[in-house]
Every structure is written in structure tokens, then in C-alpha cells.
Design goal:
Number of domains: 1
CATH superfamily: tt1808, chain A
CATH class: Alpha Beta
Number of strands: 14
Mean pLDDT: 76
Strand content: 25-35%
Largest sheet: 7 strands, mixed
Radius of gyration: 18 Å
Low-confidence stretches: 1-20, 90-95, 114-133
Number of helices: 4
CATH topology: tt1808, chain A
Length: 222
């Protein structure tokens, strides 16, 4: 179920489909060299060239805290934007992505691999592969702004829901608020709101919790 609240009245229309055109993968690659794009179900969407300062400050703090929390688990990787999350067609190879998006933060759990007989060359290859988001993330974080809200909460929300990404955090920096959506029975359930003094339990991701008072500045959310 899509949850829209009073914040919707504060924002403007977000991404604009490029001339209403459908793009194939080659066109997306060519255009993405000139501007920041997301490619969703064959359509290209422009992204904000330069997000506002408060967005970037919150992004840095959320990323640092998630890196700290997951630091002892070498299966977990935290990728801040810009980072391409490729969502493959069912049954397709990894490079047969049907959508390529850039969440503000992507948290991925890598599958364990056998390393006992690994050569230095194969170790380098493995490290290179770990820069690619194989499989679905455990968590994606979207930090919304005036220009991204509608796109984040409609087009991308539905995409994450369709692919069954277990957890989505929608962050409202100016309000010190995070809406947490958890995937169950094929859809995102109604969000759990967490505010400045709360801790978000990291259920199913890693032991522990995420304290919002460590990342939000109370003087900037008044």
C-alpha cells in the first residue's frame, strides 16, 4: 500500500521522463554519460544534478552510521549514491537489467564464497565483482527533497515493491522523520514512522538498531 501524507502538499513534480521516449539499454548508457539518469522499465528519468546541502549532509551521516553498524560483518556492503542498482528481469543474467536506479543508500548482503584455494588473480576478480550489486539489497534508503518526492514515492516505490526489496526507508531531512516500509505478502505494509529521538530496529538486516538522534541535527529539524 502506498502511503502519502501531508508532505506531499509541500513538494513539486519530480523527475520528468525524457521527451516521453522509451530508451533501450544502449541509449540509456549513452545519455547517462551526459546527465544523471535512472532507467525504469525502459523509460529514462532525469535526476537532480546537485541535491541540496541538507540532503547531502544527511546522506553522509546515514552512510557513516550504517557503515559503523555493519562494519563487523564482512558480508554486508553499504553503497551511497552515486551507485547503480541493477534490477534484473526474472530469469535473466545480471547484465540483463530491466531497471537501473540510484537509491541514496543501498545495503547489500553478499553470499559467502569459498576462499581457501583462491589465487591472487581470483581474489582481485572477486573484489571487483563485489563492486557490483548482485542480487537484491536488504535495504534501500531514499532521502527525499522537493524535486524527488513524487518520483521516489510512486515510480521507485512501486519498483522496489515489485522486486520484493525487504526494507525501504524514506527520509524527510527537514522534519527529522523516517518512514520505514517492510515488505510482506507481496507488498509494502503501512509505514512505521520514526522521529528524531527514536531508534529504528534493524530487523532481518543485522543485530542492533539505528539511532536517529545520532544523525539528525535537532536545530535543523525544528
Amino acid at each position: 500500500m502506498l502511503y502519502l501524507n501531508y508532505h506531499e502538499n509541500k513538494v513539486l513534480m519530480a523527475m520528468v521522463m525524457m521527451d516521453g521516449q522509451e530508451f533501450d539499454y544502449q541509449e540509456y548508457v549513452a545519455q547517462s554519460k551526459q546527465s544523471r539518469l535512472e532507467w525504469i522499465d525502459g523509460a529514462a528519468y532525469r535526476m537532480e544534478a546537485v541535491p541540496p546541502p541538507n540532503h547531502q549532509k544527511v546522506l553522509a551521516k546515514f552512510t557513516a552510521r550504517l557503515l559503523e553498524i555493519t562494519g563487523d560483518d564482512d558480508r554486508m556492503e553499504v553503497y551511497p549514491a552515486p551507485f547503480e542498482l541493477r534490477l534484473p528481469r526474472y530469469g535473466a543474467a545480471f547484465n540483463g537489467a530491466s531497471s537501473i536506479v540510484q537509491p541514496d543508500i543501498t545495503v547489500i548482503r553478499h553470499l559467502p564464497s569459498a576462499r581457501s584455494s583462491e589465487t591472487s588473480a581470483s581474489a582481485m576478480s572477486r573484489r571487483a565483482e563485489r563492486t557490483k550489486p548482485h542480487g537484491l539489497p536488504e535495504l534501500v534508503v531514499e532521502i527525499v527533497s522537493q524535486h524527488s518526492y513524487r518520483h521516489d514515492m510512486t515510480t521507485k516505490f512501486k519498483l522496489y515493491e515489485t522486486f520484493g526489496i525487504p526494507e525501504l526507508w524514506v527520509v524527510f531531512p527537514s522534519d527529522g522523520l523516517v518512514n520505514v516500509y517492510r515488505h510482506s505478502d507481496g507488498i509494502y505494509q503501512d509505514p512505521q514512522p520514526f522521529s528524531l529521538l527514536d531508534e529504528i530496529p534493524l530487523e532481518g538486516i543485522i543485530d542492533g538498531s539505528f539511532a536517529l538522534y545520532d544523525v539528525f541535527d535537532p536545530y535543523e529539524t525544528m
